[in-house]
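Expect chain and fold; thus:
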Amino acid sequence: MAATNKISLTEEDLVRALKAQETIAIQALYDMYSAALLGVITRIVQHPEVSEDLLQETFIKIWNSGESYDSSKGRLFTWMMNVARNLAIDKLRSKDFRNASKNQDIENNVDFIDSQRKVSFNADTLGLKDMVNSLKPDFINVLELVYFKGYTQVEAAEELDLPLGTVKTRIRMAILELRKYFN
């Protein structure tokens, strides 16, 4: 494995190159500061995948707003650290991040609960299979693929050589027919 040469510039050279948007600036900034910035972001967000995405966003923001850096207000590293910190805090405060943290994947929970209670899903014992078999054959074929074999609607359309709209309509009509059993 070949050793990679990391780029290192003085702070003055970095600032000049960043303001001129020279690619050497972003390469040097990444080589010199990415580990430290990732550490700060990860400490705030505590999700490695999200932290890596935020690190990339941080460098994009640094690149796009490099001309706004004022050396009289502080060092470049401090400014970059504040950009990273602010993006991480914004992510923590975002509604989608909070919801994703609260919600767990339903598949994992259902499988966990079923394994704890030794429950298994069997459509035949519910009588669902009999209800489905009482439908028109066109409806049965679509429901079989989508609900019992796990096909997506697009995959079912391809398998049955039907337009996607037809598959969606058949599923909708089948569900309306099945509702009659429950109402």
